[in-house]
Amino acid sequence: MDDTGNPEGLGAELFETLVKMAPTKEEEIKLKNYDGDLSKLGPAERFLKQVLDIPLAFKRVEAMLYRANFETEVNYLKKSFQSLEVTGNRMNVGTNRGGAKSFKLDTLLKLADIKGTDGKTTLLHFVVQEIIRSEGTGAESTNENVQNQTNPQFNEDEFRKKGLQVVAGLSRDFGNVKKAAGMDSDVLSSYVIKLEMGLDKVRLVLQYVKPDMQGNFFNSTEIFLKDAEEKILKIKADEIRALFLVKEVTEYFHGDTTKEEAHPFRIFMI
């Protein structure tokens, strides 16, 4: 812990080790009441006896462990909800305009099963080829079209080349979808709850502060508590917004959201 009372510099591993060393209530009483020769105690017992002389020693350690992990956990939740929000916004574009009808994304998987007369080319092949040509045509500038009008084959080859580049880049565009598909809504919600409940460890330490216990640790802990409460409120707002977007996407692509309530992120697994 530095001079300002911040525990982050010591690392979470140290605090985790100290938390595991915490004695039971019975052991704590025995060590506190021991007035014999300290050299007769083992190294661990001697260390614990000295630590127990510090007011609220292990409660402080638990609070410091929470603080040491806080930013990492907040950043993870932020990025998770951001991925869901970006994906939800992208998939929600135009869903409520022009009287569009909902359809199941699972239906797209059947494109690979519908084959042409040659028994090899599937409808999926055709769709991909059309996307390649369409994207390639759109990418070609007007000036280039004028210059290459005399060579239709050249135009077709160029269209396909540019279209393939666009299709090849789809994996980058779907990066957030992949992240969203790998998430579990219940797990994310439990992380938010755990993060919020963990603040009680910090509040508990401050609750027992006495006038003679003032110092950098308690001052920095008070500042941390206020900052953490604000960040958790923002995280909870991010969670609500992200889950709302997921629900909107599910309603559009599946119609009945009640069937998907248990696994709301299944919509991103197609």
Task: Summarize it.
The chain has 11 helices and no strands. It has helices at 12-20, 25-33, 43-52, 57-92, 123-139, 142-147, 152-168, 170-173, 175-181, 185-207, 216-254.
Feature tags:
270 residues, mainly alpha, Methane Monooxygenase Hydroxylase, Chain G, domain 1, 2 domains, 11 helices
Layout of SSEs?
Blueprint: H1 12-20, H2 25-33, H3 43-52, H4 57-92, H5 123-139, H6 142-147, H7 152-168, H8 170-173, H9 175-181, H10 185-207, H11 216-254
Helix pairs in contact: 1-4, 4-9, 4-10, 4-11, 5-7, 10-11
Description:
- The protein has helices at residues 12-20, 25-33, 43-52, 57-92, 123-139, 142-147, 152-168, 170-173, 175-181, 185-207, 216-254.
- By secondary structure, the protein is an all-alpha fold.
- The chain has two domains: 8-99 and 175-268, Formin, FH2 domain (Methane Monooxygenase Hydroxylase, Chain G, domain 1, Up-down Bundle); 105-173, no CATH class.
- Helix 1 (12-20) packs across helix 4 (57-92).
- The longest helix is centred in the C-terminal third of the chain and has 39 residues, at 216-254.
- The model is unreliable at 97-103 and 141-150 (pLDDT under 50).
- InterPro entries: FH2_Formin (IPR015425), FH2_Formin_sf (IPR042201), Formin-like_plant (IPR027643).
- One of its GO terms (biological process) is actin nucleation.
